[in-house]
Amino acid sequence: MAAVALVDSSVWIGLLREGRDPVRELVGRARTLDLATCGMVRLEVLRGVARPAVYRAVEGFLDVMIHVPTDNRLWEEATREARTLGARGITLPAQDLIIAACARRIEAAVLTFDAHFLDIPGLSVMSSLDELH
């Protein structure tokens, strides 16, 4: 297991939809590894948070997580992955390819409830909060 997990937006959104506090859930479970995020996850999560108090809590936690910056090299990597997968008949959302490239950049696993990430060869994927221990 990786020492860092990039938390995909599907985890944040899934927990929020269930009425659970994602900050409490993540902090309470991630005792042995660091948590990371990226601009794409931040955008996908925060755009849908309606309640100001929840927005501030989630934004504050995102602010203290490891942040993976994006640059042209990262976008080029995601584009190459999209083309490689496309040649095999696999089309994934661009957002997922960017998130995967961010995770690879810092050698992190992706914590996700989204099965798309399983189609990306060599990407370490965690599909349950229980894997954070």
Classified by CATH, the class is Alpha Beta
User: How many helices does DSSP assign?
Assistant: 6
CA-atom Rg in angstroms = 14 Å
CA(first)-CA(last) distance: 10 Å
Spatial shape: globular
SS class:
alpha/beta
Largest sheet: 5 strands, parallel
Query: What proportion of the residues is helical, as a percent range?
Result: 40-55%
CATH third-level topology: Rossmann fold
Strand order of the largest sheet: 3-2-1-4-5
Low-confidence stretches: none
Query: Count the strands?
Result: 5
Whole-number mean pLDDT: 94
Architecture overview:
The protein is α/β, with parallel strands linked by helices and 133 residues long. It has one domain: 5'-nuclease (Rossmann fold, 3-Layer(aba) Sandwich), CATH 3.40.50.1010. The chain is built from 6 helices and 5 strands; from the N terminus they run βααβααβααββ. It has a 5-stranded parallel beta sheet with strand order 3-2-1-4-5, with helices on both faces. The radius of gyration is 14 Å and the shape is globular. The termini are close together. The mean pLDDT is 94.
